[in-house]
Amino acid sequence: MLDPMGSGQVRLSDVAAVAGVSLSTASKALSGSTRISLATRERVRAAATRLDFRPDALAQSFASGRSRTIGVLTHRATNTFSQPVLIGAVLLLGEQDQATLVHDGDVAVHRRLGQSVRELQARRIDGLLVIGDGHEQVTASVTHHFAVPVSYAFTASDAEEDVVFLPDNEAAGRIAAEHLLSRGRRRIAHLTGPRQSLAVQLRETGFREALGSAGVHPVGPVLRSHWGRPWGAEAMTRLLDSGTDVDAVFCGNDHIALGALDVCTRRGISVPDDIALIGVDNWEGVVVDQNIRQLTTVDLELMALGRRAAASLLGERPTPGQHRSPPTLVQGPST
Amino acid sequence: MLDPMGSGQVRLSDVAAVAGVSLSTASKALSGSTRISLATRERVRAAATRLDFRPDALAQSFASGRSRTIGVLTHRATNTFSQPVLIGAVLLLGEQDQATLVHDGDVAVHRRLGQSVRELQARRIDGLLVIGDGHEQVTASVTHHFAVPVSYAFTASDAEEDVVFLPDNEAAGRIAAEHLLSRGRRRIAHLTGPRQSLAVQLRETGFREALGSAGVHPVGPVLRSHWGRPWGAEAMTRLLDSGTDVDAVFCGNDHIALGALDVCTRRGISVPDDIALIGVDNWEGVVVDQNIRQLTTVDLELMALGRRAAASLLGERPTPGQHRSPPTLVQGPST
DNA sequence: CTGAAAGCGCTTACAG
DNA sequence: CTGAAAGCGCTTACAG
């Protein structure tokens, strides 16, 4: 019968007594680190199993100095795109039996940030993950405030030697272009978000690069404005009305792609037979009903980004600098 | 100059020495609990401030038995609707300086669940939050496995005395109906999701109740099928083609409402002048670009639900039983 | 109101 | 390879 409340009455000293060894030997046998005779190790393990010994995490932490807690500093965690990064981090850490202590706020506001830093230090966190709200801004590095590993996700840091994880928007553009090319499309247009957005620029760069490698040029002018569905519709309308000969459109995100799709549907243009559409974000992937997918899209894999960034604090440290997570193609009916 | 690494070299004994009191007196003075002369308390506090004393959380936890960590057991945390609940919980806990240890899995799979329970016990968590994936299923209670408070969010528990937090789908239906009534609508139809869904049933119940209180009956048959936009469009088409005289539609969720809106737009029906539309979920609230809102909707406030449920583990315990979080009306252009 | 002492349950040099 | 001992830095009865 197992201890129903988990009150953990069985201590290491009990295990040691049963196994007929000293406390320190029992500790070493279970931690597995130091040189211990195989026989002793087995005897201690057997005793531990028989007594259902579970080490008290509080005592272990106090003695070892490791809290098994990772601090997370988020910049407005409720942002649509920050959420999957945070969820990914929290889930990976949980799998590794690491708790997460989240301080949410405005990473740019120094007074509150300083407070968070102090509190996280006092909690003796084993590592810190800074999560930004995209790649548009550069976060002021806090690495020097901590003696433990610090990683940055979804934001750049202003210190070159920091370990940074970012989505790969250039690759997203490349993947979209290569997919359309592989479908035999050659007259490809681009409708996207605001010109000043870094994501817009990087996706377009990757897109042009991949087309260029195939000796193809985008058709029509690149139309840039908003991220929303209405703009997608308007841009598609302009594109069609301009008389441009087009057989595919790379849309800067899924909202724009859905707006473009609306226009095609309204005008009786068959997607993908007449025009193929591809977006970015896998927005429909978070919708309840998976069988209503309308789009092919490039998923930036933000949850995986959060997982990778969190994992970087636990195992061996990755090399300093920016690490880009590979986006994935999600095939839908629109290509 | 503050300790840049936060290595916490200042110990309570240092504070006690500077203040000229014993270690135990210093401890009591700072914890604020026991009877201590005001003068002593102030002296100790001043010393602590001057030395920038920050108690070592690991030592505090070990000595006090409180880990300042809350366990969270999720049932597929990556579900669209579980995510805001988890985010809300994690953020509230962080604000209260509580770490979160998340074990994600299938709460119905007992072998893995048992493993999670054992690990959470060993971690000496101060409380446990069980997060389900909606209200459709009843979770087997795990409360009896823990000596610390356990709360349930976004799922019912099979033990009556458990503390459970659920969204209020009936209230959502009522709020939608009352809003349409307040807009002077009287010929109100209902298009919704699958008949077997509890959310469908509860929202409809609340809807009918509110209409009934105003002496109004729904017009046309209630059309129930899928949660997606295509079904919304199909249902709206059927409704209009049936010749039903209608001036408002309560849609079971926002996808259905958007499908209905598509049909109205296509047919030149003015929303809200001819027909008002209202949905549920505030789906557009998570979209990037807030100025593209098309719908009035009822927000179930799932993040607030997560926050409340998490808070219930920290302060005084709420009464056993089900606690329903109030949904809120989000006004948009469609009513 | 204050202080000396025990104790929380492990880990980790150190000596053997 | 094994064990005795110190120590991690607090909190908390207990005695004064």
From TrEMBL, chains A, B:
Q: What is this protein called?
A: Transcriptional regulator, LacI family
Native organism is Auraticoccus monumenti
HTH lacI-type domain segment(s):
10-64
Q: Where is this region: Disordered?
A: 313-335
Instruction: Give the SUPFAM superfamilies listed for this entry.
Output: lambda repressor-like DNA-binding domains (SSF47413), Periplasmic binding protein-like I (SSF53822)
Under Gene3D superfamilies, the record lists: 3.40.50.2300, lambda repressor-like DNA-binding domains
The alphabetized UniProt keywords are: DNA-binding, Transcription, Transcription regulation
Please name the taxonomic classification of the source: Bacteria, Bacillati, Actinomycetota, Actinomycetes, Propionibacteriales
CDD domains according to UniProt: HTH_LacI (cd01392)
The molecular function GO annotations come to:
DNA-binding transcription factor activity; transcription cis-regulatory region binding
The organism's superkingdom is given as Bacteria
